[in-house]
Design goal:
- The complex is a heterodimer.
- By secondary structure, chain A is an alpha+beta fold.
- Chain A has 13 helices and 21 strands.
- Chain A has 3 domains: 166 residues, Beta-Lactamase (2-Layer Sandwich); 219 residues, PPM-type phosphatase domain (Phosphatase 2c, domain 1), CATH 3.60.40; 135 residues, Heat Shock Protein 90 (2-Layer Sandwich).
- Helix content of chain A is 36%, strand content 24%.
- Chain A is elongated.
- The longest helix of chain B is centred in the middle third of the chain and has 17 residues.
- Chain B has one domain: Transcription Regulator spoIIAA (2-Layer Sandwich).
- Chain B contains 4 helices and 6 strands; from the N terminus they run ββαββαβαβα.
- The chains are: A alpha+beta, B alpha/beta.
- At the A-B interface, helix 11, helix 12 and helix 13 of A face helix 2 and helix 3 of B.
């Protein structure tokens, strides 16, 4: 705001006052540092208002004292503290009204001590409080009108206007600073979350025996899981939950994760790893914080797992229809030194073709007003997804927790360790849509090569499976959304491919190849499937699924086998 | 995949490049049927067809039937090995007019 011209009918003194208010208000509006602007503006205010000296007092948040943050005039009182209730300044602030004292020596509240210390002789005082609504911010104080007179009612109005404008500017600047701080904090939190995500192990192919998922309830997580490949084909894994939530839990989680990653390759067995982490945490971690953790080592060739548990939710062994809780374990890590000095007991679990599920209490406690899900609840939730490849199964479980309206109060982390000895060579889930077909052909071609199949039979089988997938997309789902799973079993001599979908079950009799003498578009796909594969049949679909098509082929001829 | 059309000797040469699968066959069908609607002679250059499925074959069959009705030429030229395998599986290798090269297809 600028006043360009002086209206002719305003008295010169009033016009000057308006100019001063306009200039200072514009300076406040432009300023990034209001206190600095006030300091610089103080000399200007003093000279325009013909004051011999001036001071600005601001309320100090911690002490509630008024502190002089700037002054102008012969005596420097910057830093001067006015304890509560003393002097004219406090009177102005407490009454939230501008004080005009024509003769200070007559005023009982006048603090003579300052004059005595500085040698300045105070005659008149004008003091305007700075406040916004109920928030008292401080005051501007002027001393001694030049020329010997006193400040008057006009001066009072001008200083009152200046103080009101300064107060608004101060509060705006503080709110802006608060917002900037919050924004910076949010940014730092998202950086921390990025670092945490980077600490999680990379996504491995669906056929890999161990998979995990981590869903933080807020930006950073107090949970973690890790999977570390050891020499000799064994795989170390861990899942952990740090007590508490938020930033300090996230920091302790990062420390624990780093310790695990470092120790898993060096120490012999999960019990030794947990004992070493415990001694490190008990020595250095902050009071009241602890970590529950399961560590294990999978021997994929033997199909067994060596486990050690420190206060964590018992893992569940899922084997056919049977479900076993692995209950043994020690207290959590980091509680008292030497708790694990005798080591941590280990147990060996035979997977027997099944899978071991480990999870944090984010899953078992994901109950709303209902009772907590508990281990039995987890088992019930698992049942319809067992046919899915592990990464998709974990995603489906998490989606189910979200869908059931079970709010994520805690971070949710799950780990599945599977016996892969009898697992398909390929086991992958795809969205049932045309755009998936290229990936299916690519993955299947690779998997067939890996089995030892080669030569012209590969594109034939790929064509047959592509056509079967098209039938699922076009007929079973009828163009709607859904998923399908492609499984490949067998060896270089014989392949068995299963295509599973979750669409309504269809009548196999309705699927028949077209008459080849009838040259017309469409209907060719089923003919290709039967022409290429030796045996094509619909089998009883596994629980929770819609259809299961099995396609088998014996690989004849040496040109289709690797030498 | 890509569909590249160019005019040559009064005919349209349509080169199919890449994988003609369920995702891309609708655009192949649309492209060919527009040419059939204009009664243009068409030579389909299949040198660079890496993969074709039943839906791709069906698009070719539909164009071929329209050409027959129009009395215009519709030739599959320089059919790649993977595409020929699928034509054979469909027993359509004896139905389509085939040419070894695009030039031979143009002069057929």
């Amino acid at each position: 705001m600028r006043v360009e011209e002086r209206p002719q009918h305003l008295p010169a003194a009033l016009a000057d006052d308006l100019d001063l208010i306009a200039e200072m208000t514009a300076d406040f509006a432009r300023s990034l540092d209001i206190e600095e602007t006030l300091r610089l503006g103080l000399a200007h205010i003093s000279s325009r208002m013909e004051a011999e000296a001036a001071s600005i007092f601001l309320m100090e948040p911690g002490t509630g004292e008024l502190v002089c943050r700037a002054c102008f005039g012969p005596a420097d009182v910057t830093g001067l503290r006015l304890p509560k209730g003393q002097g004219i300044v406090w009177r102005a602030v407490n009454r939230n009204a501008t004080e005009l004292v024509r003769d200070a020596t007559d005023d009982p509240d006048f603090a003579h001590q300052v004059d005595n210390n500085t040698g300045f002789v105070t005659r008149s005082i004008l003091c305007a409080p700075m406040a916004v609504r109920d928030e008292r911010l401080g005051a501007i104080e002027l001393f001694n009108k030049k020329g010997g007179g006193s400040f008057d009612a006009d001066d009072r109005r001008v200083l009152q206007a200046l103080a009101a404008s300064a107060a608004l500017a101060l509060i705006n600047a503080r709110q802006a600073a608060d917002m900037a701080e919050q924004k910076a904090l949010k940014h730092e939190l998202s950086l921390a979350a990025d670092i945490q995500r980077a600490m999680l192990p990379p996504q491995r192919p669906p056929e890999f025996p161990i998979h995990g998922i981590n869903l933080p309830a807020r930006g950073v997580s107090g949970d973690f899981f890790d999977v570390v490949e050891l020499t000799g084909g064994k795989i170390a894994f861990a899942i952990a939950d740090v007590s508490g939530k938020g930033m300090n839990a996230a920091m302790l989680m990062s420390k624990t994760a780093s310790l695990f990653r470092c120790l898993a390759k060096r120490l012999d067995g999960p019990g030794a790893v947990l004992a070493a982490i415990d001694s490190e945490l008990a020595e250095t971690s902050s009071a009241g914080m602890f970590v529950t953790m399961v560590a294990g080592i999978l021997d994929p060739a033997a199909g067994n797992v060596v486990l050690a548990n420190a206060g964590h939710e018992p893992p569940l062994l899922c084997c056919g229809a049977s479900l076993t809780r692995i209950d043994e374990g020690m207290p959590p890590l980091g509680i008292v030194p030497d708790l694990f000095s005798q080591g941590c007991p280990e147990s060996t679990i035979e997977l027997n073709g099944g899978a071991l599920y480990l999870f944090t209490d984010g899953l078992t406690e994901a109950g709303g007003t209902e009772a907590m899900l508990g281990s039995d609840g987890v088992a019930r939730m698992l049942a319809p997804h067992r046919v899915r490849p592990a990464p998709d199964r974990l995603r489906a479980l998490v989606a189910q927790v979200a869908e059931a309206g079970l709010a994520l109060k805690d971070d949710l982390t799950m780990l599945v360790v599977e016996d892969v000895r009898d697992q398909p060579a390929m086991n992958r889930q795809y969205q049932a849509r045309p755009a998936s077909l290229s990936a299916i052909r690519h993955d299947l071609g690779h998997a067939l090569s890996a089995l030892g199949v080669c030569g012209p039979v590969i594109p034939d089988i790929v064509l047959a499976v592509d056509e079967a997938c098209q039938n699922v997309i076009r007929h079973a789902y009828g163009g709607g959304e859904g998923e399908m799973i492609v499984q490949l079993r067998g060896d270089h001599d014989h392949v068995d491919i299963r295509l599973i979908d979750f669409a309504p079950t269809i009548d196999p009799a309705s699927v028949c190849p077209r008459d080849l003498n009838d040259v017309r578009p469409g209907g060719l796909g089923t003919h290709f499937i039967r022409e290429v594969m030796d045996n094509v049949e619909f089998l009883a679909p596994p629980p929770g699924t819609g259809n299961l098509l099995r396609m088998a082929k014996r690989i004849g001829g040496h040109e289709n086998r690797k030498p | 995949m890509k569909i590249e059309s160019r005019e040559r000797d009064g005919a349209v040469v349509v080169a199919l490049v890449g994988e003609v699968d369920l995702q891309h066959s609708p655009s192949v069908r649309k492209h060919l049927m527009e040419l059939m609607f204009d009664r243009r002679p068409v030579v389909v250059d299949m040198t660079a067809v890496e993969y074709i499925d039943s839906s791709g074959i069906a698009s070719l069959v539909e164009a071929y039937q329209a050409a027959r009705k129009n009395g215009t030429r519709f030739v599959l030229a320089a059919v790649s090995q993977p595409a020929m395998r699928v034509l054979q599986l469909a027993r359509l290798d004896k139905v389509f007019a085939l040419a070894d090269t695009v030039e031979a297809g143009l002069s057929a």
